[in-house]
Amino acid sequence: MGFLLIMKAELVKSLVISRRYWFRTLTSFVVGYGMLVLLIAGVSQTGDDITATDTAQVFTFKLDRLPAEDVFESVAGVLEAKSEVMEDGPTLTVRIMGRSDLRSEAFYSVVNRLQLHGCQLRSISQYTEVAEPILSRLTITD
Fold it and tell me: What are phi and psi of 133, to 5 degrees?
């Protein structure tokens, strides 16, 4: 609470000093209160909260052949599916929602669809996205 009082006093002081300069006063209010809001938002939401809101699990499937492109479009919980041929063979990379209830269903649906299309699994690896793709999705507007 003391910090908020200090911030308010600083804003009032800047208003008194720059009362002749209305644009500067308005700008100082916007910047001052903007910094205050960002500080409060930063303190109230920790890094774990940020990654938990939009963290996706990424599964990489090494296969004997690639499935059709539209196989995973209707699977609930699948955010993105990319297939490509790498030096160690065909690879399917699937981004699945981070929520545990949807993640499990989506994972088993992907595996079942691969089996239905006759693809043989050679290996499966999983990782959680790091902060960089999450932050880029938060800052880029469509």
Answer: -65, -30
What is d(CA 52, CA 68) in angstroms, rounded to the nearest whole number?
A: 31
| Averaged pLDDT for residues 52-79 | 82
Average pLDDT, the chain: 79
For residues 133 and 55, what is the distance between their CA atoms, to the nearest angstrom?
A: 9
- Give one word for 118, left, alpha or beta, with left for phi > 0 and alpha for psi -120 to 50: left
Kindly list the distances between the CA atom of residue 124 and the CA atoms of 14, 59, 73, 130, 140, in Å, as whole numbers in the listed order.
60, 7, 20, 19, 30
Q: Are 18 and 29 in contact (CB under 8 A)?
A: no
CB 119 within 8 A of CB 91: no
Which tokens belong to 17?
Answer: 């000093």
* Angle at CA of residue 91, ends 74 and 63, nearest 5°: 90
Position 22 confidence tier, pLDDT thresholds 50, 70, 90:
low
CA distances from 16 to 9, 10, 28, 30, 108 (A): 11, 10, 12, 16, 65
Question: CA-CA distance, 94 to 57, in Å (whole number)?
Answer: 8
